[in-house]
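[09:14] KT: can someone run the structure on this one? pasting the chain below
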Amino acid sequence: MDVRHHFEEHAEHYAERVAPFFAITYEYLARWSTGLPSPARVLDVACGDGRVAAVLAAQRHQVIACDRSAPLLERAAGPRIRLLHADAHALPLRKGCVDAVVCNLGVQFFARPVVALREMGRVVVSGGPIVVTVPEKPSVRPQAPHAIVAQLNEAGLRMCDQLSLSVSVRVMDVTTLVAVWKVEMSTLRELAEGSESDLVELAQTLLDQDDGSITLPLKFSAYHCVAGHS
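[09:31] RB: done, structure tokens below
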């Protein structure tokens, strides 16, 4: 199943029931943004429903919220936020036009992540910060590796730091559980785009075994990078 189609089809459910589970990443990026010159021009790539864009705008930054999903992008509208309906693989922005770039839980969905990361490096000012967050150790497949470090290197981005974030969330319905798995398992494209019915069946089985709810340990990593222009 196409993951982007899944989130577009369930945009309202994702925004209201799933996105709040990832609040730890929004809060982290809000704290990070306080260290930027104010106001900074910040590009939020794969912004979804605008959770990160909103916290950046609340810090008085000028935000470009970019996503290729129109239903989710519409939800990102707000003060100091410019909406950009575009593909991360070919950003319609000039070189060095923003001061910083964030991509929260988005890189794992890109068909060509290295190309998208290069685009982030192109549009940020030379030496400007790029922060990429990704899920680590999916709860349904704890042994799953992630290729983000190799992708960052191939894209020409220099990694400066890596931090881990973790939280436990309680999920009480099948649709939400499957949606959370979609975010996690997107690090394994063959699973994320696998059979929807298999995931639904597994989710229902786990919920039935645990009296209608299940606790998921969610883990994320934040990669801090810079790019230099030749």
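[09:33] KT: thanks! The radius of gyration is 17 Å.
[09:34] RB: yep, looked fine to me
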